[in-house]
Amino acid sequence: MLSAADPTTREFAFHSPNSTDVQSPAVAVRLSTPAEIRHIQIQNRRNPTFHARAKDLAVWVSDDGNEWRQVWKSDA
Fold it and tell me: What is the dihedral of CA 4, 54, 41, 19, to 10 degrees?
């Protein structure tokens, strides 16, 4: 879920639904045309209580929305 709140007043810009039945929460960014992405900046929440949530964080890409390939995965 994207937040409409000013990101300077909140600790996060998006989050997964507050539900325990979500096994693989995800955020999808769909571009209008295929493009090369050279840089992605991911900032974890500042509160250390939530830092472990970034474990196994990964970035996947797809040209068609059906076939996906992983291009990055967090180390910790």
Answer: -20
**Maximal C-alpha separation, the chain:** 38
**Burial readout 48-63 (b: 16 or more C-beta within 10 A, e: otherwise):** eeeeeeeeeeeeeeee
Two tokens, residue 11? 């600790």
In this structure, are residues 12 and 25 in contact, taking their beta carbons and an 8 Å threshold?
Answer: no
Position 43 confidence tier, pLDDT thresholds 50, 70, 90 = confident
Alpha carbons 11 and 9: distance in angstroms, whole number: 7
